[in-house]
Amino acid sequence: MVEKYKKKGETWPDKSKKWNPTYVAMIEVMDNSVGVLRAKLKELNLDENTVFMVVSDNGNVGNVTTNSPLRGAKGAMYEGGIRTFGTAVWPGKIAAGSTTDYPITGVDLLPTFAEIAGAELPKDQTFDGQSFVELLKTGKNIKERAIFWHYLMYLKGGRSNKGWEGDNVLPIYRTDRMYWRAAPSSTIMQGDWKLIYFYEYEKYELYNVATDISEEHDLSKSIPEISKKLYDKLMTWVKETEADAPTKVNPDFVKKLHSLLYETFMIKVSIHNEMTMWISHK
């Protein structure tokens, strides 16, 4: 499969930009696999009594796709990293061709499948998600709630025309990040509002993803009351869930190296510790 696209790529007009035969082969294998599963369900006469879903756990890889008009890529807390597709087939329940922009997350899957199967969730456990069966059936949004992300990693990912490392390093798509595609952060989305708090800078960014899906306009200073409300709710969630959080600055942190990463070029991972500001958690 990879060889097939390598040969096809020989005639690609600009291989330096969007040519990755392995990635394309993976997509075709994924598509074919979905078809195989659907065909098997039909063969077993289970297709009319099966809910079939395909979802993704993160956004596109930055050095292969543009993610336009979204900002960021896989690993980032911007929409390019967390806004993904989802598709579902439920004969007789979901209207063909129906769509929704209402956000759901992985934690919503368990309560949804439990309701579909008529199973009762344990009473002595807390579940973060909520069922979206009504959304599937009617297209009506489920009750508004806050959605949270908590990501405490420095995730490598300078975008290059030779893969993740090499010459001609470019910023992570629609960001100014040259090396880390993700830094320690917590994120909250409620309604059209989304706030990202970066522990490294001790500051947050606020976006209205309904009117600014590309997240080009940080509104944290122009609408401080919404920023403060979401930030307080986010920090309360971090505390209540006892999530790990940075507490002190890395004593080996070298500010000059850190600046170089964002302003000029990509440095090898061999100096990883000197580039990471936060190290302690809890």
UniProtKB/TrEMBL annotation:
Sulfatase N-terminal domain: which residues?
Answer: 5-118
One short Pfam family name for this protein?
Answer: Sulfatase
What SUPFAM superfamilies does the record tag this protein with? Alkaline phosphatase-like (SSF53649)
Task: Say if the entry is tagged with keyword Calcium.
Answer: yes
The protein's superkingdom reads Bacteria
GO MF annotations in UniProt = arylsulfatase activity; metal ion binding
Its keywords, alphabetically, are: Calcium, Hydrolase, Metal-binding, Signal
Needed co-factor(s)? Ca(2+)
Give the InterPro entries listed for this entry.
Alkaline_phosphatase_core_sf (IPR017850), Sulfatase (IPR050738), Sulfatase_N (IPR000917)
As for family, the record states: Belongs to the sulfatase family.
Name used for this protein in its record: Sulfatase N-terminal domain-containing protein
This chain's source organism reads Polaribacter filamentus
